[in-house]
């Protein structure tokens, strides 16, 4: 599948402050891409540039092959992207239906298509019964659902979500996350700005970590692999010295540490090394309870990358 | 620019105005107060004490009434937008609804035109409503005495058709500029309301006969208003840009 979003050296400078520097990215069609970074890292600025809300200072960017800096193509980009901004920005005095209808009209949908689309999303998000209620009476979670429906009303190819679960209670946040997962099934390209590492880990195919400059990009596992060697953890019934020595003698194992009754073996390729490790332990008289690959959480990956990178 | 898009924005704003008690009160009260106060303050004593004023004085007073009321009527399209436009633009800004709006395939001109149109329409309805009420009252009192309608004359027609719309547009433009720098609706209304100052000068100029609202003077005022509308319009267009709104509007 081709790239839906492509940037090369994308840079934005506000007066003397560089918000985004030299961003080079390629996001495939149908991919859910998570953009992580601390406050002020340039996440929102990137989304605004890609949505053609603000101009770039340098570099280039294309959304579905359309150039963000060309005014005519920018208008076409706005037609094919949906934006869920950090703040809902709903019209409080208007009903949920009227809010969505207004946006549907701005996106040029005819009345039938608007009605169908609004009904579909409000039913999907469990708000159809409240369609005529003023948004002012809605809870934060309900408002966020309306904002999601608003971003999707015109069936966009690309969806930009800027902190979609920020400030929501766990139940509402779960509803929003589940909805993102539903959208993922539809193979819609999603660009997700978030602080929530757990959320990013659960819904994103790939992650980009930014702090003015792009620090790293890849799947959570790829990012982890770049930072740490792979480790196989073998839990034993009892830890004995000759068992440890037997494992240390293996060429496929680079380093062995112990912790309680566990052996932590640093390896290049766990799939290749694990059978030899188990065989060596058993031959040495050790008894294996379990063998697992040590998984680093996205939080560990993120914190290590952010700590290592000097602030921009 | 697609007028259909601008109309969508205008309709939405009008829909919001209808649900906003403050705006509805402003839209109704401004024309009522400014059109009825001068006339009633003149006519009430005449109606309550019909013999206290001589016939000649009464005729002179009635003939003077159009001159007193006209400057107040042209204040309606100047004051009303300052109340509504500030709400429309600052409200949208503080509500953070401009970002998703700007992310739609709608041009800045269409948004600006739509929002301005939403302020212009009810303001002009109120203004012309005020003119109609005053004309009806004045002619109702004057016709039996003079056997003819005393208004509208050329001055009134010019005030209705030239000055009022241009003052209204001027006020909207000034308020868009004020709104770009303000985050509080009431503060924006107060500062935006300063646009009424030049109209106050016209009012006092007319009352003191230093600058009467005669057709020739009105043409001068209208010319100045048009030049200012064009000047402010180009500044407003520069201020009302996506980039400017999202990065510089405070």
Q: What's the shape of chain A?
A: elongated
What general form of chain B does the structure show?
elongated
Our Rg estimate of chain A from Cα atoms comes to: 24 Å
Strand percentage of chain B, roughly? under 5%
Q: Report the end-to-end length of chain A measured between terminal Cα atoms.
A: 33 Å
Helix content of chain B: over 70%
**Number of helices, counting only DSSP H or I runs of 4 residues or more of chain B:** 11
Average of per-residue pLDDT values of chain A: 90
Low-confidence stretches of chain B: none
H and E order of chain A:
EEEHEEHEHHHEHEHEEHEHEEHEH
Instruction: List segments of chain A where confidence is low: pLDDT < 50 over at least 5 consecutive residues.
Output: none
Order of helices and strands of chain B: HHHHHHHHHHH
| Total strand segments of chain B | 0
Describe this structure in words.
The complex is a heterodimer of chains A (312) and B (250). Chain A contains eleven helices and 14 strands. Chain A is α/β, with parallel strands linked by helices. In chain A, the strands form three sheets. In chain A, strands 6-7-8-3-9-10 form a six-stranded mixed sheet, with helices on both faces. A four-stranded antiparallel sheet of chain A has the order 2-1-4-5, with helices on one face. In chain A, β1 and β2 (17-28) form a beta hairpin. In chain A, α8 packs across α11 (298-308). With 250 residues, chain B is mainly α. Chain B is built from eleven helices and no strands. Chain B has helices at residues 3-18, 21-48, 55-73, 76-94, 98-102, 108-146, 154-179, 185-192, 197-207, 215-239, 242-247. In chain B, α3 (55-73) packs antiparallel against α6 (108-146) and α7 packs across α8. The model of chain B has no long low-confidence stretch (mean pLDDT 88). The interface between A and B is medium-sized, with 33 and 25 residues.
Task: Give the helices and strands, then pairings.
The complex is a heterodimer of chains A (312) and B (250).
Chain A: E1 3-14, E2 17-28, E3 32-36, H1 43-50, E4 58-63, E5 66-67, H2 71-80, E6 81-84, H3 96-106, H4 111-124, H5 140-152, E7 158-162, H6 170-185, E8 189-194, H7 197-203, E9 206-211, E10 213-218, H8 220-227, E11 230-236, H9 241-248, E12 253-259, E13 262-267, H10 270-283, E14 288-293, H11 298-308
Parallel strand pairs in A: 3-8, 3-9, 6-7, 7-8
Antiparallel strand pairs in A: 1-2, 1-4, 4-5, 9-10, 11-13, 11-14, 12-13
Helix pairs in contact in A: 3-4, 8-11, 9-10
Chain B: H1 3-18, H2 21-48, H3 55-73, H4 76-94, H5 98-102, H6 108-146, H7 154-179, H8 185-192, H9 197-207, H10 215-239, H11 242-247
Helix pairs in contact in B: 1-6, 2-3, 2-4, 2-6, 3-6, 3-9, 4-6, 4-7, 4-8, 6-7, 7-8, 7-10
């Amino acid at each position: 599948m081709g790239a839906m979003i492509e940037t090369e050296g994308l840079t934005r400078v506000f007066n003397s402050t560089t918000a985004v520097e030299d961003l080079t990215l390629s996001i495939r069609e149908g991919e859910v891409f998570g953009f992580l970074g601390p406050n002020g890292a340039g996440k929102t600025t990137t989304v605004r540039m890609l949505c053609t809300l603000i101009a770039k200072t340098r570099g280039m960017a294309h959304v579905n092959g359309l150039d963000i800096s060309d005014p005519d193509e920018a208008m076409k980009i706005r037609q094919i992207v949906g934006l869920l901004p950090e703040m809902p920005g709903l019209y409080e005095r208007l009903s949920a239906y009227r809010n969505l209808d207004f946006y549907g009209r701005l996106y040029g949908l005819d009345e039938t298509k608007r009605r169908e689309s609004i009904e579909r999303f409000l039913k999907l998000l469990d708000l159809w019964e409240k369609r005529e209620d003023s948004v002012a009476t809605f809870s934060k979670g309900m408002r966020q659902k309306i904002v999601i429906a608003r971003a999707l009303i015109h069936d966009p190819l690309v969806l930009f979500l800027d902190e979609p679960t920020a400030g929501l209670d766990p139940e509402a946040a779960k509803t929003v996350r589940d909805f993102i997962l539903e959208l993922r099934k539809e193979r819609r390209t999603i660009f997700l700005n978030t602080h929530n590492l757990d959320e990013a880990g659960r819904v994103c195919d790939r992650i980009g970590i930014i702090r003015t400059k792009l620090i790293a990009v890849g799947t959570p596992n790829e990012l982890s692999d770049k930072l740490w060697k792979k480790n196989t953890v073998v839990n034993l019934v009892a830890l004995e010295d000759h068992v440890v020595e037997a494992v240390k003698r293996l060429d496929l194992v680079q380093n062995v540490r112990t912790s309680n009754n566990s052996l932590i073996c640093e390896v290049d390729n766990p799939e290749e090394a694990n059978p030899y490790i188990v065989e060596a332990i058993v031959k040495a008289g050790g008894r294996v309870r379990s063998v697992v690959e040590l998984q680093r959480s996205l939080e560990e990956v993120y914190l290590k990358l952010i700590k290592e990178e000097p602030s921009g | 620019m697609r007028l259909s898009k601008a109309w969508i924005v205008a309709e939405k704003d009008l829909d919001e105005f209808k649900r906003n008690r403050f705006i509805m009160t402003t839209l109704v009260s401004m024309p009522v107060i400014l059109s009825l106060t001068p006339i009633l303050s003149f006519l009430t004593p005449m109606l309550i004490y019909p013999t206290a004023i001589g016939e000649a004085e009464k005729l002179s007073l009635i003939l003077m009434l159009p001159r007193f009321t006209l400057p107040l009527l042209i204040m309606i399209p100047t004051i009303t937008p300052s109340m509504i436009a500030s709400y429309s633009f600052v409200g949208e800004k503080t509500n953070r609804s401009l970002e998703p709006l700007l992310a739609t395939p709608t041009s800045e001109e269409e948004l600006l035109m739509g929002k301005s149109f939403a302020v212009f329409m009810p303001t002009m309805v109120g203004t012309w409503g005020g003119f109609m009420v005053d004309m009806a009252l004045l002619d109702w009192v004057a016709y039996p005495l003079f056997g003819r309608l005393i208004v509208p004359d050329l001055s009134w027609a010019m005030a209705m058709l030239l000055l009022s719309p241009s003052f209204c547009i001027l006020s909207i433009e000034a308020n868009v500029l004020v709104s770009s720098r303000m985050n509080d609706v009431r503060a924006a209304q107060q500062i935006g309301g300063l646009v009424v100052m030049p109209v106050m000068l016209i009012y006092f100029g007319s009352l003191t006969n230093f600058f009467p609202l005669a057709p020739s003077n009105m043409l001068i005022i209208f010319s100045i208003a048009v030049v200012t509308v064009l000047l402010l319009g180009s500044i407003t267009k520069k201020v009302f840009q996506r980039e400017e709104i999202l990065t510089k509007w405070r």
